[in-house]
Specification:
Blueprint: E1 2-4, E2 7-9, H1 23-34, H2 40-43, H3 56-67, H4 79-94, H5 97-100
Antiparallel strand pairs: 1-2
Helix pairs in contact: 3-4
Length: 125
């Protein structure tokens, strides 16, 4: 605090370069974006049906929210990009990706999802 001409001047922190969301807000926005084409029942951990946590859709959403090193930001990244990354994660989890993705592949890495496999296996428009 400094006094200047009878006014109190408060120093504030400078704004962050990118908007940040509270973790729950980011998770909710990501869920809303992917729920456009995925049933909410497949995305939720329903205490009455613990099997939901094993659906590829639930696993992909949880990966997108909590594990993905890229940490897409619904405030900055396009919905198309978020859905594209989510869809490829669903493919990975629904087809046993751990079993068919070689260690040298970059599936579910922080790299752009269009670079997750070589040109013979995946292409993006």
């Amino acid at each position: 605090e400094d006094e200047e001409d009878g006014f109190v001047v408060l120093e504030t922190l400078s704004p962050t370069s990118t908007p940040t969301l509270p973790p729950d807000g980011r998770a909710q926005q990501l869920k809303e974006i992917v729920s456009v084409f995925t049933s909410n029942g497949l995305l939720e951990n329903n205490n009455n049906n613990n099997n939901n946590t094993t659906t590829p859709q639930y696993q992909a959403l949880q990966w997108l929210i909590s594990v993905d090193d890229l940490s897409l930001n619904p405030e900055l990244d396009t919905e198309e990009r978020i859905r594209q990354r989510y869809t490829l994660a669903v493919l990975y989890f629904s087809t046993g990706g751990d079993e068919w993705v070689p260690d040298d592949q970059t599936f579910l890495s922080a790299s752009h999802e269009c670079d997750w496999a070589d040109d013979n296996h995946l292409s993006c428009n």
